[in-house]
Design goal:
This protein is α/β, with parallel strands linked by helices. The chain has eleven helices and ten strands. The chain has one domain (2-301): Thiamin diphosphate (ThDP)-binding fold, Pyr/PP domains (Rossmann fold), CATH 3.40.50.970. The radius of gyration is 19 Å and the shape is globular. The relative contact order is 0.12. The structure holds thiamine diphosphate. One of its GO terms (molecular function) is oxidoreductase activity.
Amino acid sequence: MDKLEVAGQSRQSQQHLYAPGHSGCPGCGPSNALIQVCDTLGKDIIVVNATGCMEITSSQYPQTAWRVPYIHSLFQNAPAVASGVAAALKAQGNNHTKVVVIAGDGSTYDIGFGSLSGMLERGDNVLYVCYDNQLYANTGVQKSGATPYGAATTTTVVGSVHKGKETERKPISEIVAAHGVQYVASASIAYYADLQMKLKKAKAVNGPSFVVIDAPCCLGAGFDGGITMKVSKMSVQSRLWFLYEIENGQYKLNFNPANPKPVKEVLELQKRFKHLDSAQTEHIQRQANLNYEELVRKCSIGAPVQGQQPAKPAEQPKA
Ligand SMILES: Cc1ncc(C[n+]2csc(CCOP(=O)(O)OP(=O)(O)O)c2C)c(N)n1
């Protein structure tokens, strides 16, 4: 336990495995995700981190926020590095240490996707965690394949012709599940118990598993860092983001807001959407409704995803 002296008082603080003192923005959603991920997964992990904000702000030599073994890799190849680490652990007879990729959406959806796809197809024993802040934060807020329709970024500008991003987000969970992955989950930093449950399940898989976490970027999306949790929570409550699992091809919706909020309420909190006209807002609302209906349909059918492979039993860690 850390002992902190605060205004003459002493208090104990929990020692997080992702330490305070990193240089993420106050209210940084991804930094919060890392605290929750590391504390849930525990010390017996090796993190392979792709280039991005969470690498830059956590590990500037000679300092580090990581209290677990950590390798920084290139933007495009963290899964390949993780596969190598997993193979080395296997060769050593180590069947308890979990290799965990931590990467942003730019790395996951776009530039590292080929490497991720290969890792999934080979069935390597790696837990892949994507903190999804819906943009390339580190290089100055460019759009990624996870950027939602209508959002302004430095590469989806707003002017007389263009009004922000003109295409939808890639359905990354479905794309990953289509590789025959045993466990895929979508979570949010604002729902800790749900996130913990998913990380534990993903860790227990003997093979590839995937968890994508909604982790809003206050700087890139344009809101005060004091409301990061509110933004993520309202995204779930307005069906712009879903808490669900795809386990052995079976879909399960973990949280279904009884009275969903209009998307307008969460869009209005973010400067990246301030230019939206009513047609664009209506488009986003319609798409949220359609996405929900599609997800509910998949949950009720429970149809295996195409190409699904039979589940492997989880390996028991050595005592
Ligand atoms: C092959 C390659 N292309 C581009 C870059 C430049 N680059 C470094 S980090 C980054 C954005 C990272 O975005 P994301 O994965 O979403 O993480 P975030 O910064 O949002 O945390 C880019 C474009 C690079 N390092 N390597």
